[in-house]
Amino acid sequence: GLQTFTDRFDKKRRAGEQWLVSLEDTAVFIPDVFENVVESVMVTVLTNRQYCVILNPVGEDGKNRLGHKKLVKGEKMFFLHPGESLEQGKVQDIYILLEDEAVVLKANHPFKDADAARRPGDMWMVRGPGDFCPTTEMEIVSRRKAIPMDENEGIYIRNIKTGKVRAVVGQTYIPDQDELLYAKELPEAIEKLLANAQNPLVGREKLRGDKEVKVGASTSRDKTRVVAYQVPHNAACQVFDYKSKVSRVVFGPDLVMLGPDEHFTQLSLSGGTPKKPNVIRTLDLSLGPDFMTDVTTVETCDHARLSLQLCYNWNFTIPAADSANLVKEAESLFSVPDFVGDACKSIASRIRGAVASVTFDDFHKNSAKIINTAILGDKESLYFPANRLNITNVDIQSVEPVDQRTRDSLQKSVQMAIEITTNSQEATARHEAERMDQQARGRLERQKISDEAEAENSRRALLELQAISAAVESTGQATAEAKSRAEAQRIEGEAAVEQAKLTAEANNIEARSELGRLSSARKSELDYTREVYRLEVDKKQSMVTIETAKFELMIQTMGARNIAAIATSSNDNQVKMLQALGLKSTLITDGSTPLNLFNTAKGFIGGGQATAAK
Q1: How far apart are CA 464 and CA 221, in angstroms?
Q2: What pLDDT digit, counting tens, does each position of 257-290 carry?
């Protein structure tokens, strides 16, 4: 409005006032002389999956409510009134939460929802699956997604209320509204060792000139993830908890996962030849068996200085799994920070003490024995109880004088020794050649004598054979005649024996034939008798069957009543005769036999009853 006036809708407008005219008010609008069109407002369209928050909304009185907010959910179409604006300047989508998603909310004003009464500053979490549309009393702090982790993976979580940090390992986890991912910081040296994935064999790849991996963007680790380190086979790693002041030792092959307050124990070992401190840095301790090489300078009692290059074979004594002091014994492996330098210094001291008491000549002749005795003594190994290190063998790789004049003198003496040895070998060779020549001549003479003796023996044998041949010739004919007669007699004897065998065989055949005939005859006679008896038995059985059938037929013909009458006919006649006489009973006795009248009466009574019953 350019000035105060009443518009066509009978509403009083003040100068400078702004208002909205839409299709609901009029289909066509022509500005009045006191009206000025500020701008054309486009319709705001919301779908059913959208919402918006209007800032400074217009109230029922048509005035803007400054500092207030209004939530509008779709589906809906509306125009923004003058002074109104959209939060974030746009229409927002409803939050679609998956099963592994959640949103963290913060209350800006006091209100009550379905769960509880919220106060300003309260934070809570809404988890999926589902959709969520925030109200004007709250704001969305963050949208979080579940972190899936394998059993060898984990994350660090800090509680923002208590400040406590913990590690969550081997599960899918969504940090709560009071929890944040915690970035665990490690020393730069340990970060480099974790990025290098250094070889457990005392870092020899570094000594060979291998380039170290720089810790950059491509190799940087996620600091919120649990630090994991693979302890190689035959190695150990120490982890110290600075909160509980307790350390633990992990033997490989195994995977070490650091807790929130744990850190690796870094080993700084001596390296190179001769040994220099802090050359090798590693997280794991190789338990051996392995070797290390060192160069040490010694001086004999006649002031000859020598440089010795020695190689030591070593290993650690691993504590038993069932040991009562397993923790202390395992921690003792890491009690010496630089076991290489400590062992080399201790062994070099022993060698210098032993060499200082002998002359150069003696040491040059018996260097191996002197050094082994100085280090090992009469034992099989040198044991360091502080860290359970064993030195099992010493190899002398080289012995060189330090002084140039001593070196030249030694070289001259060696050359003279070589010349003396060469001349001695030449003389020995000539003497050996002469001796072998004499031996060859003697063997030749002995061979001639042996050949002549052998020829005489052959001649004597020939004569003996000739004599034997003549004797054989004279006795040959007699022998042939005697052999022919003996052969004739042998043939006659064999013929007689053969004839006797054939005669016996014929008799045997004849006897077997006679026996077979008799057996057949006896068998036939036995079969005949058995058949006669069987026929007789069959006849008897048939007669019995016939008689039985005849008797049964007679019984059936006569009838059972007739047979009973025939059987009792004599007794019935007697009874009838007594009845004709009128006697009831009769007793006849000689008077000498006593009678039991009671039993007799009982018998009469019983007999009478039986007769009456009949």
Answers
A1: 109
A2: 999 999 999 999 999 888 999 899 999 999 989 9
